[in-house]
Amino acid sequence: MARYIFVAGGVMSGIGKGVATSSIGKILQSKGFRVTAIKIDPYVNVDAGTMNPIEHGEIFVTDDGTECDQDVGNYERFLNENLTTAHYITTGRVYRAVIERERNLGYKGRSVEVVPDVPNEVISRLIKAAKKTKSDIVLVEIGGTVGEYQNLIFLEAARIRKLQHPKEVLFILVSYLPVPEKIGEMKTKPTQTAVRLLNEAGIQPDIILARAKVSLDEPRKRKISIFCNVLKKDVISAPDVGSIYEIPLNFEKENLGNRILKKLNLKPRKKNLKDWGKLVRTIKTVKESVRIGVVGKYFETGEFTLMDSYLSVIEAIKHAAWFLKRKPEIFWLTAEKYENEPKALAELKNLDGVIVPGGFGSRGVEGKIRAIEFCRKNKIPYLGLCLGMQLAVIEFARNVCRLKDANSAEFSANCQYPVIDVMPEQKTLIKEKKYGGTMRLGAYKCELKSGTKSWRAYGKQKYIFERHRHRYELNNKFRALLEKKGMVMAGTNPERDLVELIELKNHPFFVGAQFHPEYKSRPLRPHPLFREFIRACVLPR
Ligand code: GLN
Question: Which of 309, 313, 386, 407 to mutate to test the pocket of ligand 1 (most atoms within 8 A of CB)?
Fold first, then answer.
């Protein structure tokens, strides 16, 4: 039977619970266990697809087309596994299933109660995911912070599971220990309060991961141990690190993996974090940098800059840069700036390469098109991701094919030359306001054209599978003209003849993908398109 480790968060959000969960998974995997991870989001939303990335961060897409929280992306990157819809649970999904079952007389006429019927639905989903992946250990990250009303039913599920199988369930609290500047001392009280809140839900943490600026000293560990009722050796320091990929190694220094196994009555089967250690050494020692600009719009929130919306893009850049022994330096470029002051485009010359990532709606689009034009003309390596591919087609249509009014139907429904058009089935969905989970989502087959850059990048494979999330596509009516003027259709979907990859010749690297390659990049296996993009970036110009 699978063991379950529930990971909850205390004190505040944004302290890296997802990365901590992923890191625990990595360690246990390195000790010879089959590990999987599940993210629970306490939102009423059925999935993350309808959420604004500025508010929620990146929407990650799995092979099977689930739009989920960015943490699922972290799990995939750390565990090097492809996860599925079973690895993402929301309040919306759980209630929807319970209500549907009730409507189908699935509860055989009895009254359906929030407790235990809702937690039972949660538990049955966890068991299903464990079986499907044949896992020895299932990590379950409960979103939000303890003490919130929202995640109570999930804590209930965890508590009930423990009651049923006391030896197979473990609780880990990821907490935060602030060091107020004026006081200069690390404070444990918020963590004590968080544990008390967890106790109120009937849960006693077995292990506390103490997130803080620095490692915990002895007095702090002792205090947490006594007040929070855990052994001192189960208070694990989780200090800030330069790179998230160091975290599994740091946890191992504190013997976290063996403590977990011991509590679950398991013995390590092997030990192998070698490749991971090698990667971390590279990360810490690379000196020469590669400077990549990301032209986007989802990073400004009030006075703060958020990078979470582009998380997988950032990670994919890093993986490829490290592979080529470069230190990634990423610059956030607000697209709208290029609309208001075109002169600012000159700054792109100081970069080794430019990426326009995915996006929705017309804000910033014209600025991005200007940046793409600048890269095309000045031979700056360019990688377009989804929207970034579509805008590269628009730019080419306008400035090379001379179709002045070329646009995407997304931004200008009645433009003369809709070189990017809505997919027919999407038109109906939009009209009926059926937005949730209805885009072209998940992995689709793409046939590569031999001789192209992309084909070479992918090791001359004929077919590849990549993940999608979009409603618009290159309009085949314009394909012949675009090709005649020099655009290469490097990849197409064989079933529907949709263009999935475009390239330009006579340019060091100019590639646009209708799919999102960033979702499939892994720390020890960079994505081929990112790898070749970075390779072009580091070539002397
Ligand atoms: N808005 C575009 C579309 O729906 C691009 C989507 C994206 O970049 N993910 O087709």
Answer: 386
pTM for the full predicted model? 0.95
How far does residue 386's CA lie from ligand 1's centre (Å)? 6
Q: What is the DSSP letter of 525?
A: B
- What backbone phi and psi angles, to 5 degrees, belong to 127? -65, -40
pLDDT tens digits, 144-181? 999 999 999 999 999 999 999 999 999 999 999 999 98
Ligand 1 near 358 CB (within 6 A): yes
Per-residue model confidence (pLDDT) at position 304: 61
- φ/ψ region of 531 (left if φ > 0, alpha if ψ in -120 to 50, else beta) reads alpha
Residue 138 CA to residue 299 CA, distance in Å, equals 33
CATH architecture of the domain formed by 3-278: 3-Layer(aba) Sandwich (3.40)
Q: In CATH, which superfamily holds the domain spanning 286-538?
A: Class I glutamine amidotransferase (GATase) domain (3.40.50.880)
360 lines ligand 1 (CB under 6 A): yes
Q: Whose CA is nearest to atom 1 of ligand 1?
A: 360
Give the tens place of pLDDT for each residue, 18-67.
Answer: 999 999 999 999 999 999 999 999 999 999 999 888 878 899 999 999 99
Identify which of 389, 391, 470 to mutate to test ligand 1's pocket (most ligand atoms within 8 A of the CB).
470
Q: What are the structure tokens assigned to 491, written together? A: 């990849």
